[in-house]
What we know:
Blueprint: H1 4-22, E1 28-35, E2 47-51, E3 55-62, H2 65-68, H3 71-83, E4 88-95, E5 99-104, E6 109-112, E7 119-120, H4 140-146, E8 153-157, E9 174-179, E10 192-196
Parallel strand pairs: 3-4, 3-8, 8-9, 9-10
Antiparallel strand pairs: 1-2, 4-5, 4-7, 5-6
Amino acid sequence: GRAAGTDIxxxxxxxxxxxxxxxxxxxxxxxxGRFNRRFLAAELYSPGRxxxxxxxxxxxxxxxxxxxxxxxxxxxxxxxxxxxxxxxxVHLVCVDEELFIPERTAHAFAxxxxxxxxxxxxxxxxxxxxxxxxxxxxxxxxxxxxxxGHRELLLVITDGEIYDLHLLQKYSPTVWVLPHxxxxxxxxxxxxxxxxxxxx
Length: 200
């Protein structure tokens, strides 16, 4: 078969290009690429304004018991996210039988209140994710509640064992990040799907 290396780089490239394509940015910069129309009639070319900021990315990670079995997959998925940290500010939320914002404690993340300020992901934070004892994952609180009023790209890191997939309200843009194994039967209700092959 093909070398694992080519597989890994291809899904990473795919994920990175989807993120770059789908994300929104937010702070004004001036560019000559988009000129200011007001001066066009007078034939004066003035730089137009473009909104550009460190873009926000929301990452929802499934922390149910079935995910504990796949630490290499979680590490691989977060590896791509960490390469994007210079360009993006990553807000992390966790999903098991409920949705929560992680809180930093001495050794691991505790379950924080979903009303808390966003948790800004820093390199290596994935190591502090503690997966729950629950095997059940409910995503409706994320899609039907938390993401209301948001516009940024949502990355969902899950093994596809989602119990309320049929109840989810469409959120665009969404990217489902799943392990590569064929055993994962997952049909995304909307959005794109990227399958991650962990380095062995």
